[in-house]
Amino acid sequence: MTYKGIIFDFNGTLYWDSAMHKQAWREFSKIIRGTEFSDDEMVLHMFGRTNKEIIEYAIGRKPEPEMVEKYGNEKEALYRKRAENDKENFHLAKGAVEFLDFLKENNIPRTIATMSDKTNVDFYFEHFDLGKWFDIDKVVYADGIVPSKPAPDIYQIASKNLGLEPKDCIVVEDAISGIKSAHSAGIGKIIAICSEEPYEFYTSMNEVNEIIRDFDEFDRNLLAT
After folding, report:
1. Which sequence spans correspond to the domains of the chain?
2. Which fold has domain 18-85?
């Protein structure tokens, strides 16, 4: 079976930055609650979530908007600085450029659905020249309105932005919350990419249809050209 379009998560998918987000949130969770997030907490309560939800989990109650803005902005600024300074890893995932070129050359509808905020999305577009492949107006991001993953909304909106039904789209994800979001949205095929977690992590997830280690392993015959 072939699909008409593709939607990418970004963090941990097109850009393998999960370790930097972890480091930044460990630092801020210690400030917020006195202890660092554990690895399990990161997987279950951080990836694919908004800053507001992460802070709410950390303090065990709804945070004041001022707290969300203050800690969220500080954490993201620290994250961006670390990303830029990590020259060895400050690039798109293995095989991503070639795959994105293939999508563009074959006019395959594509977009990004990320729980990053607009400041970070602009940062990625600037530093990775994402405008070569993506229309920023079709990108779905954390704008304070779109519910965070695992709610289905973000992938439903992304499909609509491509002019497609969710069942006609492929989603590439790395996070549990994102995979559940795509599944709830009725996405036709969900591909997990092993950026942070091992291959075996995804094998027991019924929502996952296929697992790849990088974009060189993506079967291009899945997309209608």
Report:
1. 5-16+91-222, 18-85
2. DNA polymerase; domain 1 (1.10.150)
Is the domain defined by 5-16+91-222 classed in CATH 3.40.50.1000? yes
206/202 Cα distance (integer angstroms): 9
Q: Is 156 exposed, middle or buried (0-12, 13-18, 19+ CB in 10 A)?
A: buried
DSSP designation for 192: E
Q: How far is CA 12 from CA 17, 21, 114, 220, 222, in A?
A: 6, 10, 10, 21, 22
Which residue in 137, 139, 97, 79 sits closest to 115, CA to CA? Answer: 139
The whole-angstrom separation of Cα 125 and Cα 137 is: 12
Return the closest-CA partner of residue 47 out of 218, 185, 193, 164. Answer: 193
Distance CA 195, CA 35 (A): 26
3-class DSSP assignment, residue 99: helix
**How confident is the model over 43-64, as pLDDT tens digits?**
788 777 888 888 899 889 999 9
Distance (Å, whole) CA 56 – CA 31: 14
- Residues paired with residue 6 on neighbouring β-strands, in sequence order: 110, 170
pTM: 0.87
Burial label for 36, CB within 10 Å (0-12, 13-18, 19+), is middle
User: What average pLDDT is seen over the chain?
Assistant: 93
83-107 pLDDT, tens digit each = 999 989 999 999 999 999 999 999 9
Q: Indicate the DSSP class of residue 135.
A: -
